[in-house]
Every structure is written in structure tokens, then in C-alpha cells.
Amino acid sequence: MSQDPDQAKKLQELLKLLSLSNGDTSKLTVQQRKKFEEYKFWRTQPVARFDEKVDNEGPIDSSRTPADIPSEPYPLLKEFEWCTVDITNPQELEDVFVLLNENYVEDQDATFRFNYTREFFNWSLKPPGWHKEWHVGVRIRDSGRLVAFISAIPVTLKVRGKEVKSVEINFLCIHKKLRAKRLTPILIKEITRRVNKCDIWQALYTAGVVLPSPIAVCRYAHRPLNWSKLHEVGFTALPANASKTQMIAKYTLPKGTDTPGLRAMKYEDVDQVFDLFNAYQDRFDLVQVFTKEEFKHWFLGADTVIYSYVVETEGKITDFVSFYSLPFTVLNNPMYKELGIGYLFYYASDADLGFDDRFDPAATSTLKKRLNHLISDVCIIARDLKMDVFNAMSCQDNTLFLDDLKFGPGDGFLNFYLFNYKAFPISGGLTDDNSFDVKNRSNVGVVML
User: Fold this and answer.
1) Distances from the Cα of 97 to the Cα of 138, 175, 215, angstroms
2) What is the pLDDT of residues 379-410, one digit of tens each?
3) pTM
4) CATH code of the domain covering residue 166
């Protein structure tokens, strides 16, 4: 798919916001990698070093117990104080809402900003088994204003078939005016301390920047749903060799879905979908293992945030797909206040489950055809929900449909990290030149918010 350079630049800049990316990590030189290895903070942490040979997968440090972990928080500068954010308290949830919406990420031109909702935080921060103590904040001692935040939620990972009790780290945010105060390392150390006290020693986290040392790298992709609006808000430019009519036509989707049996998922579908999902996830080297209660929370737990659909044929559910909504606020625009953004979440299909080899040509062809129909219909649903762009990554089996469905490859890359756990590299659905790898696909089956 050919793209206008200005359009691509603006889209990729916004996609980088997802991970605080500093650019294309594939172009790092050997010298730059050596500099990363010298980072004062990460060199003290139990993480794999760059180019370190991994002989066996497993924990890096397994010698400590909760009794070895300090009971008191790490010291802060005298003007700050730690707090545990109670997101069941409406005012404290409002504090997180304000902090992240005003400081989390914003494009350089201050044109767009993530518009997190209170419903999104309730969904993403309160899965089954969540701990209030893992919602860590820093406040100004005199005013009580929340100026920093980091969170962890419990997850069970499976790394090449081995279950690993872990947490997922997310929403690290420092107030813009305090980013020279070196709060990030102390926030990471404090959330680590609190998690370790619960006898959990591993974590999954992602970043656009390269740190020691990624287990996998995936690439962002985007699919315009409302090109006209994107153009009007300055999100995309009109290519010199095309008209507005041509661009609108290029990205126009059918009026309605055409997958027989496609409908919204219901609670009574959970048993069937849960079994299908687990069978499908078994193909990947890095996945999150859900309990049935977690499954219900993540896929049916927030009506205005997560959207889940199934395909039912003669009483049997053959396919499942989900996506979530996280819009941008459009700043300083008289016509529009919001840009609707959809994000492909998890999905599953039985299309190729009858084959012994996932990469058998017949299996690949069958799954590719099924996913192209399914995700095309998902884009139509997202458009009808007033979403203007639909995002996906090169993880899962996404490379089978990204190009066909006019998802443009982004400049943003997302690095996946395991804390205190060594593992062999896991393919992220990219070739050596960072194009989408249709042949080998990805072995990353986990999707981070």
C-alpha cells in the first residue's frame, strides 16, 4: 500500500505515543546499544544484558523471599510523599484521570492527547485479584496534588509452555514539570518492592525505547476509517497526486458486515469462547493465561471500553474477536473535540485448529481467509461506533491480514520485556527489514494496553 509521506509521518507520530517511542529501534548502532548497557538504573536490575547468551530460560534471581524485602517505602525528596491511590474512591480516581489526561503523552505539536476515561481505568486497573497497594502515587506534600503514578496488575504468563506468576506494569506517568527529578527509577523500585512483598518476582512491561533487553519487538499498524475527518483535523495531509474523493474512496469500507453468525458476545458464550481462546493461544510462545473470571472481566467488563464479538454457526462458536476504545482529545480545533481510536485486542478462530502444523500452507490459507473477513467486519463495526482509525500490531497472526486490509506499517515499534526472567528471543511478526512477516508470523500472543 502506498502512502503519502506527510500522512504517514503524522500517523506514526501518534502511534508512537502508545509507547513513548523515541523512534525506529531497529536502526540502533552497536555503539548506541553499548550506551544503553551503561544505564545507571537498569544495570542494577535483574534483566538480561544486550547480546547476553541465554542457555536456559528462567528466573535471573530466585534467591530472595518476601522477608528479605524492606517493609518501608524508598525515600523521596522532602517535598514529595508516597501514596496508595484508592481508585474505588471517586476523588482519587479523578486524580489519576487528571494526571494522565494532562501529562501522560502528547504529540510534539500539542494537537492530540490521549483521552483516558474513568471507565477505562476501572477496567484496566481492577481485574480479578487486583491489589490497591499496587496503584502507587507520589503527591506534593504541601498541596496533596498527585504528580506521579505507576500501576501493576496480577497476570499469569506462559513462556514457551511454562507458567510464570507475574505482574503487568503500566501507566507510568510523571508530571511534565517534574521530569528532571529522577522520579521514574524510584517509582519502578517502589512498585517492585510492593510486588515482591507479595512473593511475585517477575513482570511484563513494554516500551518504545530500547532497554536491556527486549524479548520481542512488534510493529504498529494503522487503518484509517474516516479519512475525511482525519484530514480536517490535520491528522493526515492530501497527497499531491490524489484528490480528496480518491482518498475517501480508497479507505471506504462496505456499508455492513457480511460474516454469517457475527454478533456481540454474551455471558452465556463464555464457556465456549474460553475453550476456543485457550486452544488458539496455545500456538504462541508468550501468552497471558486467563482464569474464567479474568476472561469475563477483560472481554465483558466495560461496555463503553471493550467490544467483543463471536461468530456462531449452528450453535457452535467458531470465532471470537475483541477491540477496545481509547480516543484522542483534539486540541485547539473548532470543528472536532475528539478522534475515535480503536485497538485490536485478542481474537481466536478454529479455522486451522484441525491441522497439526500451524504453518501448513492449507492451514495458513484457511486462517488467512477467515481472519481477513473477520477483521474487515471489525473495522466496519469500529467505524459505525464513530472510530476514525483502527490500530493493530504485528503480534498474534495479524500479519496474515494487515496488508490486505490496508493497515499501514508504522514507524513505531513496541519492545516487550520480562523483568527477572531470561528467555530466548520470540518473533514479533517482522522480517529482517522490519516489514510484516506473513510467512513466519509472530509468536507473541500477549496484547498490552
Assistant:
1) 14, 13, 31
2) 999 999 999 999 999 999 999 999 999 998 87
3) 0.90
4) 3.40.630.30
